[in-house]
Amino acid sequence: MLKKREISDVHVLFDLLQHPAVYPYVREKANTFDQYLAITQQTILKEQNGNLISRTICDETQQPIGIISLVDLEANTGFLATWIGQPYFGKGYNYRAKLDFLYELFTTTAYNIVFLKIRKNNARSLRANGKLDYVHAGHLLYPNVYEKINRDIPVEHQFQLFFVTKADYLNYYDKQQSLSIV
């Protein structure tokens, strides 16, 4: 379901991110194929240099359908950023991608906390996030982070802050695995 970022996926991903239901919410904004190609090349280099972690989300046929990344890395924390192409909305890909990505992250690295910031007007992402039992509201426990992500941003574009701890996630993952065995 997840694979390392590859240049060969750029064309398919660029087409998916251009959809008006996707584009406003992606970090990797590009108006042309060449811009997205350059962004992807930079992303691959940044991962090689330890500045982010990024994976391509694939469907059952290994077709690229979106991106999941950990960005803004600092002191064993980072921000999770995901997007899925519009034809794949509501099919469980985002849920599965987060499950796999966080498992890889928390079992192979020293990261302890992952933050999620979701625009307050992004109802679809807020609904999807609400289905994740291991995700918690973060504005009260991390007021400095909350203030930082919303600094100098107009109210209509501000974010809600959420977080996942390594311990909570691995506990959730273990419970899910034991339920699937039964």
From TrEMBL:
What residue range is the signal peptide? none
Report keywords, A-Z. Answer: Transferase
Q: Know the name of this protein?
A: RimJ/RimL family protein N-acetyltransferase
**PANTHER family in the record:** GNAT FAMILY, PUTATIVE (AFU_ORTHOLOGUE AFUA_3G00765)-RELATED-RELATED (PTHR43792), N-ACETYLTRANSFERASE DOMAIN-CONTAINING PROTEIN (PTHR43792:SF1)
| Keyword Transferase among UniProt keywords | yes
- One GO molecular-function annotation for this sequence? acyltransferase activity, transferring groups other than amino-acyl groups
Record bears the keyword Transcription: no
Question: What InterPro entries does this protein's entry cite?
Answer: Acyl_CoA_acyltransferase, GNAT_dom, N-acetyltransferase
**Residue ranges constituting the N-acetyltransferase domain according to the UniProt record:** 6-133
